[in-house]
Amino acid sequence: MRTLFFGLLVLGLSVSCGYRLSGLPRPGEAPKTIAVSTFENSSFEPGIELMLGSAVRRQFSRPGVVEEVNQSVSPEYLLSGRVLGVRTASRTLTQKIQAIEFTVTVTIVPVLTRDSDGKTFKFDRLARSASEVYLASFDLEVSRKNREEALRQITAVLASRIYDEVVFLTAEAES
Fold it and tell me: Could you give phi then psi for residue 125, rounded to 5 degrees?
């Protein structure tokens, strides 16, 4: 009985103090609207901009304080950017100097622009680069698939970081 009382007390105090679930709009507040355009690909990796765009759209499609809309709807913000590079380097070598692990790194430059006044917002360094390790194989098809999966993981991480940064930047811009 005592635990139930303290649980209800903590719940009541947390609600009255303004605590809420992170990533959700305040009651009665509409989510910010954003249009996500496909990033330019300045790297030599074909299709990386589409992979990244798909991951970013997946992040913005979930309910939250920022909602993705079509550009024709006149969104409050526009997210665009450029994939600067995709770099692959050997990470672990055998005694016969054969690579058994590779690291692939994707570097991007995301740009958030407020539609009303054209102001652009700078992204944190963390949201601009990510790396992943994948295993090499003597079978080229297996190595290619491992690298592709590593790129998918990287784009998912970058998309999550971009989403978090957009939520932070839009909240900061409103205050």
Answer: -55, -35
Check: CB of residue 17 under 8 Å from CB of residue 61.
Answer: no
pLDDT per position as a tens digit, 116-165: 999 999 898 888 999 999 998 888 899 999 999 999 999 999 999 999 99
Which residue, chain included where needed, has tokens 């390790």?
A: 133
Q: With left for phi above 0 and alpha for psi between -120 and 50, is residue 99 left, alpha or beta?
A: beta
Tokens of 48: 């990386």
Is the whole-model pTM more than 0.85?
no
CATH 3.40.50.1980 fits 38-174, yes or no: no
pLDDT in tens, 36-62: 999 999 999 999 999 999 999 999 998
| Of residues 115, 111, 113, 37, the one with CA closest to residue 76 | 115
Give me the residue spans of the domains in the chain.
38-174
